[in-house]
Design a protein that fits this description.
single chain, alpha+beta, three-stranded antiparallel β-sheet
């Protein structure tokens, strides 16, 4: 069977420190602490689990490498 590779695309992403809901073209997506909020090339946003994000993406600059290596952000105190 023929094989294909994804084109390299640079995205912006931040790691979530609290639970959020993101409104996407496919509907609402829940994001949990440790997940990544991705902004795609057309400005679309979606949530990606940490394990999937790390298997799919790699850091491209020092700022991204620091975020990649940082411990899970702590959720803000809810009190």
């Amino acid at each position: 069977m023929p094989r294909f590779r994804k084109k390299p695309v640079v995205i912006e992403a931040v790691r979530l420190s609290r639970r959020i809901t993101v409104h996407t073209l496919e509907g609402d997506m829940a994001g949990n602490p440790g997940d990544w909020l991705i902004t795609g090339v057309e400005g679309e946003q979606y949530v990606c689990r940490d394990s999937v994000f790390r298997a799919t993406y790699e850091p491209v600059d020092d700022e991204a490498r620091a975020l990649w290596d940082a411990p899970l952000p702590e959720a803000p105190d809810a009190s």
